[in-house]
Amino acid sequence: MTQTKVTRAERQAQTRDRLIEVAKEMFLRDGYAATSLDKVALEAGFSKGAVYSNFRGKEELCLAVLDVIHAEKVQGVLDAFTQDADLDTKLKAFAAWAHQGLGEPRWTALEVEFGAVARHNDWVAAELVKRHREIREAIGQLVAHVAEESGLSTTVPVQTVATALLSLGVGLGALRSLDSHVDVDVFTDVMRVLVRD
Amino acid sequence: MTQTKVTRAERQAQTRDRLIEVAKEMFLRDGYAATSLDKVALEAGFSKGAVYSNFRGKEELCLAVLDVIHAEKVQGVLDAFTQDADLDTKLKAFAAWAHQGLGEPRWTALEVEFGAVARHNDWVAAELVKRHREIREAIGQLVAHVAEESGLSTTVPVQTVATALLSLGVGLGALRSLDSHVDVDVFTDVMRVLVRD
DNA sequence: CACCGCCAGATACCATCGGTATCCGGCGGG
DNA sequence: CCCGCCGGATACCGATGGTATCTGGCGGTG
Predict the structure, then answer these.
(1) For B50-91, what is each residue's pLDDT tens digit?
(2) Nearest CB neighbour to B113, from listed A113, A164, A189
(3) Radius of gyration of chain A from its Cα atoms, rounded to whole angstroms
(4) Fewest CB within a 10 Å sphere: which of A96, A99, A113, B1?
(5) What pTM, to 2 d.p., does this model score?
């Protein structure tokens, strides 16, 4: 039985999580600019005041949302490559994941739209850059690990591969969010070329 | 001596061109959302009414701006590859152009930010997709031409190369507009890998 | 156990923006 | 020469992000 014995801090944490959850859905579906704080708060069952009492503003809310999304993405990549199988199986698993990842949800679209916002606020820009560097670092380590494990070498430095894959993913996703005819397999095709030797 | 003998249509065309010119500068410098039509009109020496009498709205103004930018970009690429020299010289010329193209101006940032806007307006989305397809087509033909001329074959289909290069350029530019430490050379590195055999 | 300070969240309000409706003044055809 | 037409100006609206202020109930204290 869940006691109604919840401290104020716990209540606030619940409010915060619910706001992030609702905001994530709306940001991904409608984009950053088209999602108003009023609508997020209302959909979550609160008023705009709740948002401003949990986040410094719209940007900080979006950063919190991006943190959740990034964690999900990292987990997805790890799941694909962690299984005990040969490289081709792993690449296929990753390709399948990338397919549904670059397919419908508009993650990269949100990422780049928010990037435009960040350019007007040094603090937001710094926070976003920090996250991007972590992601590139993670990709680089993963690529290095996979390459070594499979006895392959990359055609260019690992850091270049990481930057290329992140850029390609972001760009491809952004293009695809407009034109679903853009071929998703381009991503894995390029990836194979970069790690082949 | 330039006669003041200008028809009304000519005057309006001048107004339109001036608005596009000013809007291009402000969109690239501050981004789409952060550029208000009031400021554009004022900076151009007109009022907001002039904007709405020349364009259906902010989106159409931005499409006109993108047309100008696209034309400049295409010309830049052609200039790099049209010169009569060996492949490596051409690639170096292109690399130099890409360096200053992906470096400071925030073209790709504008492109992806406007892409987010386009998702809420079918007509705008269609117009943008049309332009993207033309660009990919142009890149594809150029790559095919260069490869054939140099007796090389691409490691993946030409259309894939074109999509990869456009996506990579867009993504890399978007990332770089936030974090200038992201390596520009990634673009040409990947390009070399894709056309080498 | 009663009381009161404090804080999460609500409410009211403001500036700015894209967009629309309406108006004005000078060009150009009759 | 004159009047209709249209490019551009002006006034206004609804929505949005952000700020200031208020309030009611939780939780530490005597």
Answers:
(1) 999 999 999 999 999 999 999 999 999 898 888 888 888 988
(2) A113
(3) 19
(4) B1
(5) 0.91
Rg (CA), chain B: 19
Chain A residue at shortest CA distance from B125: A178
The half-sphere exposure of A102 on its side-chain side, counting CA atoms within 13 A, is 30
Nucleotide nearest to A33 (CA to C1'): D16
Interface test mutation site (partner A, options B36, B119, B128, B129, max chain A beta carbons within 10 A) = B119
pLDDT, tens digit, 9 for 90 and up, residues A30-69: 999 999 999 999 999 999 999 999 999 999 999 999 999 9
CB neighbour list of residue B26: distance below 8 Å, 6 or more residues apart: B35, B39, B40, B43
Tokens 């390029």, located at residue: A190
pLDDT in tens, A138-151: 999 999 998 888 88
| Nucleotide at minimal C1' distance from the A5 CA | D26
Which of 128-187 (B) contact A at CB < 8 A?
Answer: 128-129, 132-133, 155-156, 159-160, 163-164, 166-172, 174-175, 177-179, 182-183, 185-186
pLDDT digits (tens, 9 = 90+) for A164-182: 999 999 999 999 999 999 9
Structure tokens at A12: 């606030």
